[in-house]
């Protein structure tokens, strides 16, 4: 008996690199114009506390991306013998960056060391310099559908959905994950674009049943193999935000090999949402720089 031939992939691969490169080119032009007006490049500061291997890789990538477009990237390394000293060091460093006119945007490297209160650190960031949209003011603006800064990863996932060409108005969208930096902001953005959104999480009773109804599936859970091709509606658009290391290899939350045979478009991991995230962060930095100029003009008028 011969077995049936394996189904061929049907999905278009949504690669992040070409889109990221378009964004970097646009930002580089904006940076040149900014330097002509201000005589110095806009600055992006990364605040690091507690060095781990992944956070150092992330830091290097950001600084390299800044250099590519002419943004002045820098980092502040905060030390402290215990959580209280680290927290105080973080808030002091952030306060200095808030007051520094050469710094247009601030990112705080996550996760914070154990015992350091996230809220205290996040609240310290000037919302006008919060280019990764983690301050409660920016989260609130997004919740109400107003313009503010949105988390770059959620922004990247949304841009990928747009790139897929899917019509979002009236579409059923399922977001797997409800974190404040990816799942929830994305759910609000998709709702604003008139999709019917279901947010799934670790307590969702029947994930497969929820995912099977979706025209658009975004997976941001941090669980390799969580979504398979068998769970998808044929023709669904699949955005895999997950980054996991399995046997020394980077994989997403979706089983790509089975999903690409059912989906109409899918982001690979690595190479999908990830490259776009950094490029969008640079574009947020330029928006922050422009908004700070506008705020200054407003107060000086
Ligand atoms: P998180 O741990 O804060 O949140 C994970 C969410 O997934 C939670 O809401 C949880 O309820 C849900 N979840 C976990 N297991 C689940 C399950 N079995 N079924 C349904 N839901 C489940 O993580 P995060 O910060 O939102 O990140 C999510 C993933 O995205 C991680 O893999 C992270 O590495 C990745 N990430 C990627 C980028 C990027 O640029 N591509 C950026 C940030 C995070």
Give me a quick take on this structure.
The chain is globular, with a radius of gyration of 20 Å. It is 44% helix and 16% strand.
Question: Any overview of this molecule?
Answer:
With 301 residues, this protein is α/β, with parallel strands linked by helices. The chain contains ten helices and eleven strands. Helix 2 (53-69) links the parallel strand 2 and strand 3. Helix 6 packs across helix 10 (273-300). The longest helix has 28 residues, at 273-300. Nicotinamide-adenine-dinucleotide (NAD) binds next to helix 10. Nicotinamide-adenine-dinucleotide binds at residues 153, 176-179, 181-183, 200-202, 204, 207, 220-223, 226, 241-244, 273-274, 277.
Tally of alpha and pi helices: 10
Assess the beta-strand content as a share of residues.
15-25%
Secondary-structure element string: EHEHEHEHHHEHEHEEEEHEH
Low-pLDDT parts are: none
Radius of gyration: 20 Å
Task: Tell the overall outline.
Answer: globular
Nearest-integer average pLDDT: 95
Bound molecules: nicotinamide-adenine-dinucleotide
What's the total count of β strands? 11
Strand order of the largest sheet: 1-11-8-7-5-6
What oligomeric state do the depicted chains represent? single chain
């Amino acid at each position: 008996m011969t077995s049936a031939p394996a189904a061929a992939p049907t999905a278009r691969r949504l690669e992040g690199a070409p889109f990221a490169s378009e964004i970097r080119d646009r930002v580089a032009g904006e940076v040149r114009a900014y330097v002509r007006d201000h005589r110095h490049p806009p600055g992006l500061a990364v605040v690091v506390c507690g060095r781990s291997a992944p956070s150092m890789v992330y830091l290097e990538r950001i600084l390299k991306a800044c250099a590519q477009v002419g943004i002045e990237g820098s980092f502040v390394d905060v030390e402290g013998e215990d959580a209280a000293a680290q927290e105080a060091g973080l808030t002091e460093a952030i306060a200095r960056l808030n007051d520094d006119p050469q710094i247009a945007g601030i990112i705080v490297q996550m996760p914070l060391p154990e015992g350091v209160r996230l809220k205290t650190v996040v609240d310290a960031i000037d919302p006008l310099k919060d280019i990764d949209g983690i301050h409660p003011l920016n989260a609130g603006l997004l919740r109400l559908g107003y313009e503010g800064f949105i988390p770059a990863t959620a922004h990247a996932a949304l841009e990928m959905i747009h790139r897929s060409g899917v019509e979002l108005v009236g579409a059923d969208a399922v977001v797997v994950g409800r974190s404040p930096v990816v799942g929830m902001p994305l759910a609000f953005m998709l709702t604003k674009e008139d999709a019917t959104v279901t947010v799934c999480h670790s307590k969702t009773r029947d994930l497969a049943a929820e995912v099977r109804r979706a025209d658009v599936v975004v997976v941001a859970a941090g669980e390799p193999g969580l979504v398979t091709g068998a769970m998808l509606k044929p023709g669904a658009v699949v955005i895999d935000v997950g980054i996991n290391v399995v046997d020394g290899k980077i994989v997403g939350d979706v089983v790509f090999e089975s999903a690409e045979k059912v989906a109409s478009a899918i982001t690979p991991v690595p190479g999908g949402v990830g490259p776009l995230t950094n490029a969008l962060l640079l574009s947020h930095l330029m928006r922050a720089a422009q908004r700070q100029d506008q705020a200054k003009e407003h107060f000086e008028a």
